[in-house]
Design brief:
Strand content: 5-15%
Distance between the termini: 32 Å
Radius of gyration: 18 Å
Largest sheet: 6 strands, parallel
Oligomer: single chain
Helix content: 40-55%
Number of strands: 10
Length: 273
């Protein structure tokens, strides 16, 4: 069996019928997952990704699917699609935004579905303190985890840009350390474990951020940068592919490019990345 030379990492936020920023339609996401299944791709988790970066082999057609934040639509629309196609994904959850309450219906349940606002609507709800309207609940996290459609890792506790909110570097480091501690403690308490995988809010990080995250126990950092991820990739610089709401050949073309180190490097060079 051929081994992977590079690991494409896909980045999603919303799977929702409400169009807008960082959103793919449910039919688009279903088309993406169906394409993976029909073309023999294997969806891996963070443990396998870490092993690959450390030099262990993966099947040639391996891909890591990631979601940021933990929006309600991830449960309502993405979870049943993943289950239907036998795929799995990683969700970097903002642990302080997840709420309590019973599991809500999903798209293949035949029941009335909760509203899933667009990205700007989600931002407004969070700003107004109405997180439960737009974010997953812990009951849904536990159900998705039990079903094997999602595994959960840290996207911090408050999703704050401490570099913008703090007056000094010392204060920035202190607040970030508190935030990461809360995220890890929450994941440990709710799920019984916490990993060393961290996704940066808004993709921002600097040397202080990385030092604080290392001290907190994180070793693998996910960015919004475009990299070809190979066994020589710095685990603190894991690159991701921003997904698009397209059902043409774009999806397959990107996976083809990002799974081939030389072609991928040339592609990024030509695009000035």
């Amino acid at each position: 069996m051929k081994a992977a030379r590079a690991l494409p990492v896909l980045m999603y936020h919303h799977v929702s019928p409400s169009p807008g920023l960082v959103t793919v339609a449910p039919a688009t996401f279903a088309a993406h997952m169906r394409w993976l299944a029909e073309h023999g791709w294997t969806t891996v988790g963070c443990r396998e990704a870490a092993a690959f970066l450390a030099g262990q082999s993966l099947p040639a057609k391996s891909v890591l699917i990631t979601f940021d934040d933990g929006y309600l639509d991830n449960w309502v629309y993405a979870h049943p699609v993943l289950a239907r196609h036998g795929q799995r994904a990683v969700l970097f959850a903002i642990t302080g935004w997840l709420g309590e309450g019973p599991v809500r219906p999903v798209s293949d349940s035949g029941m009335a579905l909760p509203a899933t606002p667009d990205h700007n609507g989600c931002k407004r709800a969070v700003a107004e303190g109405d997180h439960d309207q737009v974010m997953m609940r812990w009951s849904e996290v536990e159900a998705a985890r039990a079903a094997g459609t999602f595994e959960f890792h840290s996207h911090t506790h408050q999703h704050a840009r401490w570099d913008k909110l703090c007056q000094t570097a010392a204060e920035k480091r202190e607040r970030l350390a508190e935030d990461l501690f809360a995220s890890r403690a929450t994941l440990q308490a709710r799920l019984g474990e916490v990993s060393d995988h961290l996704c940066w809010p808004q993709g921002y990080f600097d040397d202080d951020y990385r030092a604080v995250a290392r001290a907190a126990g994180f070793r693998h950092f996910y960015t919004v940068d475009k990299h070809i991820n190979t066994p020589t990739t710095d685990p603190e610089q894991i690159g991701r592919i921003v997904t698009k709401d397209r059902r043409d050949g774009w999806f397959g073309q990107r996976l083809w490019v990002y799974s081939r180190p030389r072609i991928g490097a040339l592609y990024l060079t030509l695009r000035g990345k």
